[in-house]
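for the record, two folds in this file. i put them one after another cuz i was lazy. first one right below, seq on top, structure tokens after. the second one comes after a little note so u can tell where it starts
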Amino acid sequence: MKLLSAIGFILILPILIWGDPLLRIKSLPVEVLDNETHLLIQDLVDTMRDARGAGLSAPQIGVHQRVIVYDKGRSHPTPMINPVIISTEGQASVHLEGCLSIPGVEGKVPRYDSCTVKYMDIEGKVRKDTLTGFQSIVVQHELDHLDGVLYVDHLSKLSRDILTRKFK
């Protein structure tokens, strides 16, 4: 732990790595927005920033709740509780993608350029955001984690085998 102030701490948690069976468990919805949920979100933000990631999901730190955070430009972390993609626009385009749970390798993954996500914010308000570009890609990636899906699951067998060899 790193000391943040006289009243709080920054907690950097270990990120689970590809091959850990905990990454394949489908997460459960958050039923009650409480202090524990707020602490989880702060831990996700602290861990994401320390790892220099663009997003992080609760399952990546071993917590199977439907919570993600993503960073709007590294200065504005956005938590999403029980997020669901309610619509996508455009065609799926292939983008080079990496993952904090699969360090050191990247793969070309099809993602929609725009998606609308319904979620609950940290205050318990239901929101809908339409995301485009990089933010759309990051949120689609993080939502996959909530269902036990990794970006390598979207790759062809040949591409996945090549990444597996590089990763090992």
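(here's the note) second protein begins now
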Amino acid sequence: KTTEKKTAPKPSPNIKVSNSKPQKHYLKTESIASNLYKICNFIVEHSRQAGMDEKQIVKSKIAVYEACLNVIEHAYHSRPDNWIEVWVEYTDKKFQIIIHDRGLSYQQHQPKSYDVEAAVEKRQTGGFGLHIIERSMDEVTYKADEVRGNQLVLTKFL
């Protein structure tokens, strides 16, 4: 007599799975530029599991890359003896990325209109990061806390 174990088929990567139960995942890594790829791969993996389309995955990946590069360069002044913590939390309605650091905070300013053509004409090489982050995500919130550290929350609605 043989027994057969039934398992549910794995969903195709392009099929969105309904998941109202929140999924939470965590990554902690040293604040060095070579770890940006590890962080981005973590985001891509969970974006796919959440059912995002490729365009939204790429936008989220770019926003996270820019945000974590800002942490490394500006919050930590490229000192590798610090940490970046990243959480992803998602349901079938919302995908959130929380980036936490204990470096220097930045001063938030009112969003300004950004003239990309003028920046290109001036051959500007920096200062695009915040603009890219805000354009790539549906919501962006930032909290600076001297005790708990800085927290950037990036949200995509699914």
